Amino acid sequence: MGGLQLLGRGAPAELKMNGTADRRVHWDSVYAAKPADEVSWFQPTPEVSLRLIRRTGIGRDARIVDVGGGASTLADHLLAEGFSLAVLDLSEAALNQARKRLGDSAERIEWIVADVTAWRPHHAFDLWHDRAVLHFLTEPDDQEGYANTLRRAIPAEGWAIIGGFAPGGPAQCSGLPVVQHDARSLGRLLGPELQLLETHGETHVTPSGAEQAFRYHVFRRR
């Protein structure tokens, strides 16, 4: 972790998270206050994530875990393409929105209510997807917990796609500070067994019309 720069520390002190319980209360309140299509990170079609997942060439029998998937529509698209999917989120309120939207199709998904920094997967996944979870983990212990979970979750030849605010992008989201990662900081965090293969930028347009700079990183475990 040495030298990892933590950015965006300007949020009010009362909004800084002090562990799993605080984070759960915060995100449950966010999803209780707004429907999924009104939060700033909503995407009707997560085009970049889908393109990067397809580009890995994994088969339809592959297991994917969408970390912090919440009420994201990525699950809808991956189910339609025949993938086996788990969705993990700290907020049960977020997952309940997704279950309601998917109806009977929700039974085809493994729903996991857990803090990714402490989660211990019961089986391996071929691909780890995270859009905008890691960037909320501003404390070194939480970042290391995330990295340890990722390494437990994917075996050799497994994939990890991690997206978040790009350097120069927003310093806060949902009232919380974020870390703007780049390839170097992610490489230090994940370790040498995760090889960076590709980066991809995205300008995300929020439901209110604001533009946010995102960057995605594609890793493969050696």
Low-confidence stretches are: 1-15
Shape: globular
Largest sheet: 7 strands, mixed
CATH superfamily: Vaccinia Virus protein VP39
Number of helices: 6
User: Which secondary-structure class do the elements indicate?
Assistant: alpha/beta
Any idea what the CATH architecture is? 3-Layer(aba) Sandwich
Looking at the structure, the CATH topology is Rossmann fold
The radius of gyration is 16 Å
**Percent of residues in beta strands?**
15-25%
CATH class: Alpha Beta
Count of extended strands: 9
- Strand order, sheet with most strands: 3-2-1-4-5-9-8
Mean pLDDT comes to 91
Instruction: Give the proportion of residues in helices.
Output: 25-40%
Q: How many distinct domains?
A: 1
Termini gap? 20 Å
SSE topology string: HHEHEHEEHEEEHEE
List the helices and strands and how they pair.
Layout: H1 20-33, H2 47-56, E1 63-67, H3 74-80, E2 84-89, H4 92-102, E3 109-113, E4 127-131, H5 140-153, E5 159-165, E6 172-173, E7 176-177, H6 183-190, E8 194-205, E9 211-221
Parallel strand pairs: 1-2, 1-4, 2-3, 4-5
Antiparallel strand pairs: 5-9, 6-7, 8-9
Helix pairs in contact: 1-4
Describe the structure.
It is globular and about 40 Å long. Mean pLDDT is 91; it is low at 1-15. It contains 6 helices and 9 strands, in the order ααβαβαββαβββαββ. It has a 7-stranded mixed beta sheet with strand order 3-2-1-4-5-9-8. It starts with 19 loop residues before the first helix and ends with a strand. The chain has a single domain (13-221), classed as Rossmann fold. It is of the alpha/beta class. It has helices at 20-33, 47-56, 74-80, 92-102, 140-153, 183-190, and strands spanning 63-67, 84-89, 109-113, 127-131, 159-165, 172-173, 176-177, 194-205, 211-221.
